[in-house]
């Protein structure tokens, strides 16, 4: 007679291995099964294991704007390896208004980092962190870096989002701001840098002369890597890195050939990369070269993709080099530079896409400031 083994009798490491293959929705329900399972699923080591599990596939999050409702939102697309099966929508759109409870639009989305997004409301200057898998949402406290006179107006800003790679693994938000003085008709100098730390739920402000927000470009998706968040200079002649360890900004040169072309900064196979191309013109073929920074100041061209025809613009990049492209027909494609093939994510008849991201489900909680050092 075969003796049955209860799941509770299995070794903890085996239970952890089995449960790490489950989707987030199931794991949130399983936390209610027993106290032991609750503790296991809340364990930082388990959260890391789940995030890195090969059975936690990469999906695609598209940030778009709906003309009929005049609201922006997310749509999640599930990735399929089977060529005979089309990508399918696996969740409904998550309207920002449902999350922030505000009537204003969100214009800034940064991430994802370990499944977390940074959201910013341009009109009301609300900042928040959001785990789209668990629906956990954390508004950040107001940051008022200046005793601003009435003549000061916030006219330029950039965000960064990362964590300090130490034993605490504390998340940080970087907010770079430039103010215009209407009385003097000139920019306020220096630039104000505000740093939010999750463990203290507070901001710290300091002044910076090396860089100003109006001279750097917003990154295409997540550009946090190994303790640094990166932006490219608008002229493509350099990139700036913010060191999360000591809150310092470093400057790294790029090849002179980048300056005469259009560029986007993103990740490529766990490296910082520049996606370089001629300005996209409808009706003209466009190729995109992927250059990887192998060490500070040294760049190497890894992949040439394309040529593409009838592309309006690129909307973002996945960590493994996937390129999100908006076609003239309002169709959104994702191109794999290794398989040399496009996948259609869908058409938006009632709006248009703003950004696209590679995304993995995550159990990372915003209620804790540390959960061990996860790898992006």
UniProtKB/TrEMBL annotation:
Residues 4-54 form the F-box domain. InterPro entries: F-box-assoc_dom_typ3, F-box-assoc_interact_dom, F-box-like_dom_sf, F-box_dom, SCF_F-box_component. This is F-box domain-containing protein. It comes from Datura stramonium (Jimsonweed).
